[in-house]
Amino acid sequence: MGRYVIRRLLQMIPVFFGTTLLIFLMVNVMGDPIAGLCGDRQCDPATAAQLRTEFGLDKPVWQQYLTYMGNIFTGDFGTAFNGQKVTELMATAFPITIRLTIVAIVFEIVIGISLGVVTGLRRGRPVDTVVLILTLVVIAVPTFVTGLLLQLLLGVEWGIIKPSVSSEAPVDELIVPGLVLASVSLAYVTRLTRTSIAENARADYVRTAVAKGLPRRRVVVRHLLRNSLIPVVTFIGTDVGALMGGAIVTERIFNIHGVGYQLYQGILRQNSQTVVGFVTVLVLVFLAANLIVDLLYAVLDPRIRYA
Amino acid sequence: MTIIDKTADVPAPRGSNDESGPLLEVRDLHVEFHTRDGVAKAVNGVNYSVSAGETLAVLGESGSGKSVTAQAIMGILDMPPGHIPKGEILFRGQDMLKMSNEERRQIRGQKIAMIFQDALSSLNPVLSVGYQLGEMFRVHQGLSKKEAKAKSIALMDRVRIPAAKERVNDYPHQFSGGMRQRIMIAMALALEPDLIIADEPTTALDVTVQAQVMDLLAELQRDFNMGLILITHDLGVVADVADKIAVMYAGRIVETAPVHEIYKRPAHPYTKGLLESIPRLDQKGQELYAIKGLPPNLLHVPSGCAFNPRCTMAQDICRTEIPALRPVTEQDGTELVGRGSACHFWKETIHG
To answer: Which family does it belong to (chain A) (predicted)?
Structure first.
């Protein structure tokens, strides 16, 4: 187990450098960051040249990358063009997005798995059909539509929630945005759990559990669910990364100043330091989430042993 | 013409039979499966009974309804598509088909336990064997985790699994096939049930291990004075452990007999065919006999005697009239205790 973890951590190093390099190059291809800083007006050439030297943009790209990586390892993610340190932006943005992601994941686990179990055990019955159609609708409708619709109905028309989240973004204000963010994944979790449960419900060991005279609840929770959750855990694990980076639309709709919002601003302003910095951290989150999922496998299924 | 509805009249074979009446009695049991292609009649009026300490072997091809009958007794049929239109399953005189789900659950595992064929798929792969064994005590007797574990170790010792104490936390895939089957047996035995149903307990095992497992099962049955229903298609296994035999074909019992008599003088052409298809050393070099044809499609069971298309003795009456299970007698009319045959020509088969 220990050796496996070390090997996996070592494998992360090339992945980490590869992805950051790619992002760095892509951001450089996007266009001249100085032009973006001046906005719509034409830049003063002298000021532009001065800014270029100041940010090191006059050097070749590979040199820029090396300097940047060197700085990252000393904890310096550079400064955004507005003078704020990128680490400061992160310090305010990540806690908000992490809270939002946790809300979304809780929705996925609680609602998604419960619906999956219920429908999986009642395949072909009305409950199953209704839930299946609902998940299909949720998957088919884009997030910004459900997001804007809920914001309009709950926030503006009925006034149940505040249409826009305040800058501190407490958990209670994040419930509806979290649900919107989770919606598509929630539908997938429901379907995945349903299929898995329906398949395992016919397994011999479930029949054995029934023949042992165990109460139905115990048969489902201890014997059936434990085996059926293995594919679902994989999905939810990889979804953690996707939710953190993919909250751009949801964060825009509800005006949440999280990672998605900062990334959006960074791209709009062609601010490479912000974009690369945030994406780098997201890559790390992805890698960590994947490793945790693989380790969870071994916990859920003792037949998998890592050496 | 009397129709035999039970076969418990064999003199008490093994162990004392102090209970009055049989432990389990199946009366005219019918089981159907409603499928997209029609109604498959898996069991069509089965009658049998088992007393304490007695072993009944239920013999038959795949699809003859022997496992379905067992599942109906255990109450683990998939319903739907399964459906029991008719019949009674009496356990200690009480009809289990009329009981509530909760009452039946109380019986499962505590009073009637089942051993399944493939122990690898029948044990939960993600739970340790100690947990799965201990579950019986924790759920039915309310023992603590620690007490249950101690009991599990004792059980594993009882079925002679070496180093039980070290292996109690292992998972099913870490055991060999024979050891896994022992764990299944231990699980069935845990609460010392009155009746054990063993559904082809040795089919997935190699021959040397088969003998060990069967010996263990027979020994434990003697010690606990349990009733045992042994479902198998292996005539060799039956001869050693069973007291009486019921042969099934297309969801019916076609012949019943005390175990040794059936080998000497079968009273049904199907049983005769089965016995002749056993390889024998004294017939080395000759072609092995096989019953012609295929088992019947349960969606379209042949009219009359279901065996008629494959039977060498079939006459017109066999195609029109379903033969009832009738008592078999000697040529002079003296009754042969516990014997019955559902063949129009049983006389010709046994005496001819």
So the answer is: Belongs to the binding-protein-dependent transport system permease family.
Q: How many CB pairs under 8 A join A and B?
A: 72
Residues B137 and B169 in one domain: yes
Examine the pLDDT at B22 and tell me if it is beyond 50. yes
Final residue belonging to a domain, choices B252, B269, B300: B252
* Same domain, residue pair B229 and B272: no
Question: How many other CB atoms are there within 10 angstroms of residue B262's CB atom?
Answer: 28
Say yes or no for a CB contact (<8 Å) between B109 and A203.
no
**Hey, is A302 helix, strand or coil?**
coil
Q: Alpha-carbon distance A102 to B234, whole Å?
A: 58
Mean pLDDT score, A33-48? 68
Task: Give A40's pLDDT tier (boundaries 50, 70, 90).
Answer: low
Task: Verify that B151 and B103 share a domain, yes or no.
Answer: yes
Residue B318 lies in a domain: yes
DSSP code per residue over B232-284:
ES-HHHHHHH-SEEEEEETTEEEEEEEHHHHHH--SSHHHHHHHHTS--GGGT
Number of domains in chain B: 2
Residue B322, min C-alpha distance to chain A (Å): 35
Residue A207: CATH number of its domain: 1.10.3720.10
At residue B234, φ and ψ (nearest 5 deg) are: -105, 105
Residue B128 pLDDT greater than 70, yes or no: yes
Closest chain A C-alpha to B122 CA, distance in angstroms: 4
- Per-residue pLDDT, averaged over A58-83, amounts to 77
Percent of chain B with pLDDT over 90: 11
Cβ <8 Å between A204 and B110: no
**pLDDT, tens digit, 9 for 90 and up, residues B201-212:** 887 778 888 888
Tell me what ipTM this predicted complex has: 0.83
Residues of A in contact with B107 (CB under 8 A): 213
Q: What's the domain range around B273?
A: 256-351
B219: Cβ contacts below 8 Å, ≥ 6 apart: none
